[in-house]
Design brief:
5 helices, 5-stranded mixed beta sheet, alpha/beta, about 210 residues, 5 strands, elongated, Nucleotidyltransferase, domain 5
Length: about 210
């Protein structure tokens, strides 16, 4: 018999909805399946939902200690993904659907795990801006130059710098802490942006565009 943990939005159970977040989900619904069918259901309170910090990691360690087959939630942060991946637990992105539906669709092969536990479109690979790097001027002009470089931003995808994997402008689900950046990281990013802007201005001047 295999276990599946589902982060739930409220009191848990098969009729509750799958939570869009993992670490601070109020409850986890534990579903035991055998021969492709639901055999038993339990609801476990998440003791770390109000933790001042480290809620995701602690919740992931708690879940991983049970050795489940899979865990469902809307998205999993990089720290949570690391813990669950190391434990060999599948991470299945799913939200805004009843727990029962999510489990049944998973058992029927309609839902599957994704690398890093990120929902489609929120990858953890090369992130914002494979563009304005070393590609300036590699072609016959501005057209082929900008965007061919692997410069600034490479690897700065959502979820890689310690905040949840939400795109710019997206609202953060209730209960999820606001992103926080280290001042040194911000200064480093600003410095690189200023350097790239300076390169662009010089190139425009060379081309007679300024």
């Amino acid at each position: 018999m295999k276990e599946i943990f589902i982060a739930a939005t409220d009191r848990g159970g098969l009729e509750d909805l799958v939570s869009p977040i993992f670490g601070r989900a109020p409850t986890f619904t534990l579903v035991e399946v055998e021969d492709g069918k639901i055999q038993d259901v339990q609801v476990l309170s998440n003791p770390y939902k109000d933790a001042p910090s480290g809620a995701g990691i602690q919740a992931a360690q708690l879940v991983a200690s049970r050795g489940p087959r899979a865990v469902f939630a809307g998205n999993f942060g990089p720290n949570v993904s690391g813990v669950l991946s190391q434990a060999g637990v599948e991470m299945v992105p799913a939200s805004d659907m009843p727990v029962r539906e999510a489990v049944e669709r998973y058992l029927q092969g309609e839902l599957s795990s994704t690398p890093g536990g990120m929902a489609p479109g929120f990858g953890m690979g090369p992130g914002m801006g494979r563009g304005m790097g070393g590609g300036m001027g590699r072609g016959s002009g501005m057209g082929r130059g900008m965007g061919r470089g692997a410069g600034m931003g490479r690897g700065m995808g959502y979820g890689q710098m310690g905040w949840p994997p939400y795109p710019p402008g997206a609202s953060i689900p209730p209960g999820e802490p606001a992103p926080a950046e280290d001042p040194n990281t911000l200064r480093d990013r600003i410095s690189r942006l200023e350097e790239e802007l300076s390169k662009i201005k010089r190139k425009l001047k060379e081309l007679g565009g300024e």
